[in-house]
Amino acid sequence: MTSRASTERRGSESITSRHGFLLRGLLLVVVVGVVMSLGNVNIGAIGQGLGYALAGVCVFLTYRILGFVDLTVDGAFPIGGAVCAILIVNGASPEVALLVAFVFGALAGLATALVDIIFKIEGLLASIIVITGAYTVTLRIMGGRSNIPLLGQETLISRHSRPFRAWLVEQFGDSMKRQSTNLLEIMLFGGIVIVVLAILYWFMRSEVGLAVRATGKNAQMVRATGINHYLMVALGLMVANGMAGLSGSLVVQQFGFADVSLGFGLIIRGLAAVIIGEVLLRPKSTGQLLIAAVAGMLVFDISRAWIFSALDLPTTDIQLVSALVVLAALGTPRLYDRYKAYRQRFVNTR
């Protein structure tokens, strides 16, 4: 009876957790929609957030799941974008370019894992070494050029742009023509992100995925069970940075060019996305955590676009605005915790 009651209680708590997560998610959607409407924020911010979303998932996997301080995302992202651009320019289909970009991003993660495992160099320094070399690798992939335009090339966006615009105008009138590309990006990138999250969720619940998760929680216990701890670290870093490479390929097709410095500061952006998602949605399960990382990246890009729209800032201020949004995302929870601790001490002294 006690076991049955305990099982029923856990099931009830799980249902309550899902309902609470769903409610907070719906509330977040409403609030973001109101902010975008009142702030006259273009829906293109949603498409851009979806393009970068998998980079946020990459940071979540390394930072939360593996407990590995990894900066490789700053190198895997532009490598994935460069591979995507060079393949498209040489006639490959955009879908093939996405898959190859994932593989090259995963190889960047493998390089960090090997430096860490073979030379016993801690993750932070190992990833710094890799992203330093990744800059040259990206240039080599791009044929020594720092920028590759995709004008006139077939991308995921350009392939469907004309028929989608024609359908949109036919259904809703000429007023929708201006937003057709943004809507197409949201639909395409949203679909890709959902599929990738579903595959990743399945992987994280598989036997291998559970071993990767256990490695991040307690490496010593994993070794005691006979599982190769180093192999799990390498696999986790490959999957995570494969997400970054895939994200880089999406952003390159969205922007219409690949640039060697495209991933500059992406690790901070990814950390901000993870923190924002966790603070706003308070996820409990693995699936909820993955969704929260994506939601956090969307909120980050929409917040940045809202600041530009509200203050009418020039585009040259984008790095400063990004830094302020990151500071707000990382600093606000800490200030709130300090406020709660101060309030508790004040109550106890009365």
Draw up the topology in text:
Elements: H1 2-38, H2 44-65, H3 73-89, H4 94-119, H5 123-141, E1 147-149, H6 156-172, H7 180-205, H8 207-217, H9 219-224, H10 229-255, E2 257-259, H11 266-281, H12 286-311, H13 318-349
Antiparallel strand pairs: 1-2
Helix pairs in contact: 1-12, 2-7, 2-10, 2-11, 2-12, 3-4, 3-5, 3-10, 4-5, 4-10, 6-7, 7-8, 8-10, 11-12, 11-13, 12-13
Describe the structure.
Helices cover 81% and strands 2% of the residues. The mean pLDDT is 91. The protein is globular. It is built from 13 helices and 2 strands, in the order αααααβαααααβααα. The protein has a single domain (39-349), classed as ABC transporter involved in vitamin B12 uptake, BtuC (Orthogonal Bundle), CATH 1.10.3470. It has a two-stranded antiparallel sheet. Helix 2 (44-65) packs antiparallel against helix 10 (229-255), helix 4 runs antiparallel to helix 10 (229-255) and helix 12 crosses helix 13 (318-349). It is mainly α and 350 residues long.
